[in-house]
């Protein structure tokens, strides 16, 4: 899980990333506390700054294209969470 804290503007990037927003995320734990350092993820769902999101990593995030240059993606927006 993570919180979107910013976006990345890249005028030059791999052609497989054209059409994807790149967002800066801060990973969080189940208590919504920040853990680790900031990361960049491709946004598959239209998340905005300040939203809590689900993050997928590795080859499993390549859902729409096989050869996309992504290793971390926002795959869902968290509405509520019960722990």
Describe this entry's structure for a reader.
There is one protein chain. The chain has 83 residues and is mainly β. Helix content is 0%, strand content 45%. The chain has no helices and five strands. It has a five-stranded mixed barrel. Strand 2 and strand 3 (34-43) form a beta hairpin. It is globular. The mean pLDDT is 88.
Question: How much of the residues is beta strand, in percent?
Answer: 35-45%
Radius of gyration, whole Å: 13 Å
What is the helix content?
A: under 10%
* Weakly predicted, low-confidence segments: none
Morphology call: globular
Order of strands across the main sheet: 1-2-3-5-4
Sketch the topology as an H/E string, one letter per element: EEEEE
Average the pLDDT over all residues and give the rounded result: 88
Kindly report how far apart the N and C termini lie. Answer: 13 Å
Derived structural class? mainly beta
In DSSP terms (H or I, runs of 4 or more residues), the helix count works out at: 0
Strand count, sense and closure of the main sheet? 5 strands, mixed, barrel
Number of distinct beta strands: 5
